[in-house]
Write a structure and sequence with these properties.
Blueprint (H helix, E strand, L loop, with lengths): L6 E5 L4 H12 L3 E6 L2 H9 L5 E5 L5 H15 L4 E4 L15 H29 L3 E6 L12 H21 L4 E8 L17 H8 L10 H12 L10 E4 L12
Parallel strand pairs: 1-2, 1-4, 2-3, 4-5, 5-6, 6-7
Helix pairs in contact: 1-7, 3-4, 4-5
Bound molecules: nicotinamide-adenine-dinucleotide (NAD).
The site of nicotinamide-adenine-dinucleotide has 26 residues, from helix 1.
């Protein structure tokens, strides 16, 4: 059941959830290809990991950058077995009439187009290798629910589930599994931009306290489910989205 010796590419690897997956997989003996727009933090992370690691600074919404990250991994390790396609940005917290086309395009470009480019590059490499593979996408509780003030983010993360299902159908017959984690609230830099206001860290902490488990999650708690989905323990799972949210998705907002 061990992932030791496999090669995994992680996008958004310098961030809270991506770096947690990197540390978790490194502890399991997985060699890593780490990519993010923030090359400085990537390099610092790689120095701290106990496995062979390749870093590639690039933007997940830029086709050439995505393909170059895969090429860098293949040049170093000869293959890539696993992908955690995780990079994402929060949407602007605005009312629908104020949502700009520029913000819509930016959020959809990184969260959905970026996921598509990552999935496509993964499949192209898996088809060369002819040995199957596994992909985990980072969806969100925002893939399953909506609010009226975060439309671009919800649309992008709902779109990730459509991508996931289509890719799982394509991948099944060739031995490629595609699943997703849907985190709830995990304190990371994702919320830093909103400061102390709605959607910021304090607001998220208050919201996390109302979930069934009454607390936010940790990066490690998401990473352990990513590792499970990438591994043989999940050999009969594909097209699935696993909520890792302290029970938040189980709560009905409409009481019977
Ligand atoms: P984070 O901000 O700590 O990490 C995101 C990383 O993505 C950063 O390192 C950033 O530099 C990188 N990134 C941003 N734009 C990029 C681009 N265009 N190309 C490449 N890299 C880019 O946030 P996080 O919480 O670790 O978020 C990771 C994923 O988890 C995102 O997809 C996010 O939507 C999702 N998510 C997070 C939470 C949460 O509570 N933190 C909940 C649900 C879903």
């Amino acid at each position: 059941m061990s992932l030791a010796g496999k090669v995994c590419l992680i996008t958004g690897a310098a961030g809270g959830l991506g770096s947690a997956t990197a540390r978790r997989l490194a502890a399991d003996g997985v060699r890593l290809v780490l990519t993010d727009v923030d090359g400085g933090r990537l390099a610092a992370l790689a120095e701290d990991l106990p496995v062979e690691t390749v870093v590639h600074a690039g933007d997940v919404s830029v086709e050439a950058d995505v393909d170059a990250a895969v090429a860098a991994g293949v040049a170093a390790f000869g293959r890539i077995d696993l992908h955690h396609l995780n990079a994402g940005v929060p949407g602007p917290l605005v009312r629908l009439p104020e949502l700009s086309v520029a913000d819509w395009d930016r959020v959809l470009g990184i969260n959905l187009r970026g996921a598509f480019l990552g999935v496509r590059a993964a499949f192209r490499q898996y088809e060369v290798q002819r040995s199957g593979g596994a992909i985990v996408l980072t969806a969100s509780i925002a893939s399953l629910r909506a609010s009226d003030d975060l439309l671009a983010y919800h649309a992008s993360k709902h779109g990730v589930l459509g991508l996931l299902k289509g890719a799982a159908l394509y991948g099944g017959p060739i031995g490629v599994r595609v699943n997703a984690v849907a985190p709830g609230i995990v304190p990371t830099a994702l919320f830093a931009g909103a400061g102390d206001g709605p959607g910021g860290g304090d607001d998220m902490a208050r919201r996390a306290a109302t979930t069934p488990l009454r607390r936010p999650g940790t990066g490690d708690e998401i990473a352990s489910v990513v590792a499970f989905l990438l591994g043989e323990g999940a050999a009969y799972m594909t097209g699935e989205t696993v909520s890792v949210d302290g029970g938040a998705a189980a709560v009905s907002t409409v009481r019977p």
